[in-house]
Design goal:
With 229 residues, the chain is of the alpha+beta class. The protein has helices at 104-107, 121-130, 147-160, 192-199, 203-215, 217-222; strands at 14-15, 19-21, 27-29, 36-38, 49-52, 55-58, 66-71, 85-90, 135-138, 163-166. It contains 6 helices and 10 strands. The chain starts with 13 loop residues before the first strand and ends in a 7-residue tail after the last helix.
Length: 229
């Protein structure tokens, strides 16, 4: 069993991806459909993508605010490793504004308002293996906003032979998550108004992301990936 680095704290910030500089030291974050224009010293809507010195940094990288071992059926996925346990994690912040969020205490918090622990990607995988979990779930908030951490965990899991089990919600940005083994995108609204009022996101944005996954499902089945709409 490899040595864990959990208690080796770091003060270094992790520079984000999917951004570009703007005038007056602002940055444009285009990771999610909100396309936040962030002034220096400020954060985007999600709270954890911040502009420091004219560069975008991810405060969620290697800083999970919630860790949990769940039965895989809780996710829910249809016949995906039935009867096994899944190692679940999430960070502070979110790019959605769902009024019904059951994880509001972390999803509507900033990174310094929750008890997060520095855990490098390879240690997430080591913890999953140590606790008998053959899969890893990115959940509790919108994993899109900590995509850099998600992708590095997926790479570490693939090297170790574990199955990363991605569970982004409907604002999924397609490109960063092409290495996921599974995906669950839940449409949970009955009208355009309920979608807008309950999530704070434009309905067209939500369903454009659902369409990406739905229309691409046959292609993903051929490559070994699964999607569930």
């Amino acid at each position: 069993m490899q040595e864990l680095k959990i208690f080796q704290k770091t003060e270094a910030l992790h520079e984000g991806r999917w951004w570009e500089p703007m005038s007056e030291r602002r940055v444009h974050c285009y990771l999610c459909p909100r396309h936040c224009h962030i002034g220096e010293g400020q954060s985007g809507f999600c709270f954890i993508r911040v502009n420091q010195g004219g560069k975008l940094y991810s405060l969620g990288y290697a800083s999970p605010a919630a860790l949990q071992i769940d039965p895989i059926e809780k996710k829910p996925l249809n016949h995906f490793l039935p009867g096994t346990r899944v190692f679940s994690l999430g960070t502070a912040g979110c790019n959605m504004g769902c009024f019904f969020c059951q994880n509001w205490d972390i999803s509507k918090s900033k990174s310094d308002q929750v008890r997060s622990t520095h855990i490098p990607p390879e240690d997430i995988v080591a913890l999953a293996i140590r606790n008998g979990c053959p899969s890893i779930a990115f959940t509790y908030n919108e994993p899109t906003i900590w995509a850099e951490y998600v992708i590095d965990i997926c790479h570490a899991a693939r090297e170790a032979g574990s199955a990363p089990n991605g569970l982004p919600t409907a604002t999924l940005h397609a490109k960063p998550f092409t290495i996921f083994m599974t995906m669950w995108t839940p449409p949970m609204w009955t009208s355009k108004r309920s979608r807008r009022d309950s999530t704070g996101a434009p309905p067209s944005r939500i369903y454009s992301r659902c369409s990406i996954r739905s229309h691409g499902s046959s292609k993903k089945r051929k490559s070994g990936l699964k999607s569930r709409i």
